[in-house]
User: Fold these one by one.
Assistant:
Number 1:
Amino acid sequence: MGRSSVEAIETKEMDYRSLSSSEHQQEPYMHKVGVPPKQNLFDEFKTTIKETLFSDDPLRPFKDQPRSRKFVLGLQAVFPILDWGKSYNVSKFRGDLIAGLTIASLCIPQDIGYSKLANLPPQYGLYSSFVPPLLYAFMGSSRDIAIGPVAVVSLLLGSLLSNEIDPTTNPIEYRRLAFTATFFAGITQATLGILRLGFLIDFLSHAAVVGFMGGAAITIALQQLKGFLGIKKFTKETDIISVMKSVLRSAHHGGKKNKKLFWIPAIAPLISVILSTFFVYITHAEKQGVEIVRHIEKGINPPSVGEIYFTGDYLLKGLRIGIVAGMIALTEAVAIGRTFASMKDYQLDGNKEMVALGTMNVVGSMTSCYVTTGSFSRSAVNYMAGCQTAVSNIVMSVVVFLTLLFITPLFEYTPNAILSAIIISAVIGLVDYEATILIWKIDKFDFVACMGAFFGVVFGSVEIGLIIAVSISFAKILLQVTRPRTAILGKIPRTNVYRNIQQYPEATQVPGVLIVRVDSAIYFSNSNYMRERILRWLMDEDEQLESVGLPKIRFLIVDMSPVTDIDTSGIHAFEELHRSLHKREIQLVLSNPGRVVIDKLHASNFVSQIGEDKIFLTVSDAVLTCSSKSPEEVV
């Protein structure tokens, strides 16, 4: 061994001697680990349910209120507009009016383009920006989110629906399946909110979402080359290789923002549509081969409840597609809502958001709308335009209503190329390279998830990218659950604090004592790994001590501070660990088990197996006691 290793061992021996001498001089006070009072089964179950599903205590405002007040509070809980509407004034309306008109100018050309991604006629994009935003304004809790069709969900819906029905040969059945999927997307979202299961969307990690959105943006942009370049024969596949083959085969045919200037990119799409439509109309460019929108139905949303499949083969297909589209739409909307809520410092009720989004999609499916959610680009414009409340959505909805009644025939001459350009400019911001770089710096496994989702969408399909994103997210969870981190602790010089020796190289280990910390709850999924990992730590440490002629480990102290829970498999693993240590003449000592853990250790009689005197409140107390014992006392 080198000189530094010898010095470290000598330091440990000096620490041990000083610790032993001080121990003989004064017996320190050691507080025992508390055992919580017994709870009956019903109270324990009620507490668990409350903490799992009702951690925000939603019924607190109803406590000690008269019946009439409870009724009013109930209405305000379902329709938040009844709460904040009481303080609404002209000043707020001015901000909402400007914001609503601004996002309307952005949404109209986007909606016509996004409906193409969903393989639906252009009016259905406009329908989807009329009814759903109105409903959300009454039921949603976000002040800034702008509701309507979005590029990623439109692409996902179009891709999944096209796998079941060809939109060209069977447009009516395709449309019916789209409404069916929208209905079940809403049912899925509302059910998650009512049952308070919103935490399920958190299983799709941020890194996977970043990669999925980036890949979808590239895919959407590539697909717009058909309209942008005027390509007539274009692949129905979404992967980059198929798209580029179509582009190359048809090549011979031709073809961060300043907040004060936010209105320029916001109104640019509408101005582009107006100018290009005007020039096509006066020059009759459509006769020269320029592809245009052609017919757009005039009038507001027709009812479509009779078109939803409630029976037959397409029912289950609509259910499956709706669940997938609904979850992705929900993930996007909640992410947007939380972002702007934190920027303006107000609370966003995630479960209310899910109910609101679900309700608007259920009603939307009955009024000729397809899946809608919060839009990144429109919400950002809405925020920068100075919106104060969800009334900006109402203003936008009114503008779309007037457009459907009076203006839609004017869009018949809009060239497809300009709509493709608008979609490309809208989705290109979804490629968040800064977030990708940050993910690489913070967590390499997250980066793998991000890139897996990205390349899955770009080189495969939206479905493959989504499957990869979900699979990698679950794999990460399983890896963290089944392979929890463990660490060897040492004493920080001139303190009684014990920390990870890899994080604090100056920390010294106590002679004859190995201190291990388990940084996770101990369940059936990781209990065997935990036991085997601790034994490997012990074997490695003994081999190192034996090589330099020092005494072997006599005590194993397990710091239980991070262990929030333990099940029967975990306790069984500790029993096996205790037996293995006993054969090696090593005592097992536990430090600071939590309330739930110590309760289960007592219930299983494990405490009586190792002895009450082997459980300590702190690692320092455990070390003081163990270091003061002679080898004869240990045996």
Number 2:
Amino acid sequence: MGACCSDVRGGQEAVGGAQQQRSIAAGGGGAGHNDAVEFFYRTKGVEALFTQIELSLTASKLLDRDIVSKSDPMAVIYAKKRDGSLEELGRTEVIMNCLDPAWIEKINVAYQFEIVQPLIFHVYDVDTSYHNLPVKMLKLKDQEFLGEASCVLSEIVTKQSRSLTLKLHNKKGQAGLVNLGTITVHAEETIASRNAVEIAFRCSHLDNKDLFSKSDPFLRISRIVESGGSVPICKTEVVNNNLNPVWKPLTLTMQRFGSKDNPLILECFDFNSSGNHVLIGKIQKSIVDLEKLHKEKIGANFILPSSHHHTHEKVLKGQLFVDRFIETKLYSFLDYMSSGFELNFMVAIDFTASNGNPHSRDSLHYIDPTGRLNAYQQAIMEVGEVIQYYDSDRRFPAWGFGGRTYEGSVSHCFDLNGSAGSFEVEGVEGIMAAYASALRNVTLAGPTLFGQVINTAADIAGHSVSSTNSKYFVLLIITDGVLTDLQETKNALVRASDLPLSVLIVGVGGADFTQMEILDADNGQRLESSTGRIATRDIVQFVPMREVHGGQISIVQALLEELPGQFLTYMRTREIIPQPVTVPATAPPQRSSTCGLVDP
């Protein structure tokens, strides 16, 4: 593979490059496998009989679609279902100006040997105007199609080299007159290890490869695989105009490097925006070797391979140093769940007038005398079916907001069951009964404000921190998505981002959900409060029910997609590790209502 294979946004940072760190944060998440989804099925008594496989992709001689530069390729992997529909398993990062990409982002697939698992690979040239978006936000119809290939997963894993090269063809399945290039898929079994190494590199006295300024170096680290080839596993950022660069620390999981004795290739390149990065030098070292460099505070000299076979490699003056080497354990979501950590769910339902008059058939709150469920009831049933498996006591605080309550005033957080003594309901049936009762006693009003229910949930989460570290709270807001005060909601979410709390917003009906997408912050922009404070982490996940019912996503996958990552980010930043939790012999006292006691 040529030296053009670095993925760089705006030239220098990975397009979707945060993905790699995200998948580490989520405990190896990826669309192909999700710990929270696995836990859901396991709790239902469905044990998954599969092997986790990690797919690495490279391509060669791709078609050049760009006029003034080379294509900027990204690959997408799909599983082909029995009915012929495609389920997206994951996307690589985008690599700039490169027709022979070696993508770093891996895609996880659950390999089940007893069933045929057809895979489809699509390669796209990503338009320059989208280079600042995370890859999961890219609309594929806006990108230029470079070709597709297909195979069955067992074809890859049964090969001795665990690699399969496929010819790319057009969507009609024809190769045509134009050579579209090839894609190579390499499969490796995922190592279920929690071990990781945080490592910081710097270099000194690098050779200068630029004429009018100094080199712009970055490191690429690859692992040597059994077949003798190498697979890139991560890269640093680019340090501009510097022959003595210091890079930000990297986290390497054992999943990525295999074992501490496994040889790694560390290559230092001079970045060029054309994609033709120039090799400054390379070193072969294992994790053990790198740890020794750190302990002894010595550097290792780069070498430059000779272009002629009969001449020796050149040992360079430039050296690589390891300034930081810390071994850590990255516990998974399942590690926490199986050691007594709990998810506690809370529900808030939108009673604002934008939902339509409940007596009218076209209202989202219409109670059909035939028993047919309305949009809210459907959402409560489908979402409740998933979340109740995580909540051991299956008692849910349940609120409504935006309605004129029993007392005659508009409330932005009222107890759904109308009880002064308790705001908790029992199970999904309890939420359904309290919702039906509230519709008979509450008048739809407005405006739509999420702030008070978020603050109330945050208050409960905040109180739990003082007594236990083993509870994490999830507020489920079911809404038609028409929000009156976006900034007020942002303020509440920024305040809550320090607490053990996630917010799942489920959108019902056909409204414009643009505001909900803003709160989800999947574009990489953290929420900012009106005082300029930035959220410490992303705590919002938005799920539009119309996409679930349209068959585009499963409700289980949609609801739990980001939850493991949000949970782990909270636990890891506070250095909370899984440990057996003693369960009290007696049931805890019932919580009394807190709605309305929290400053809006």
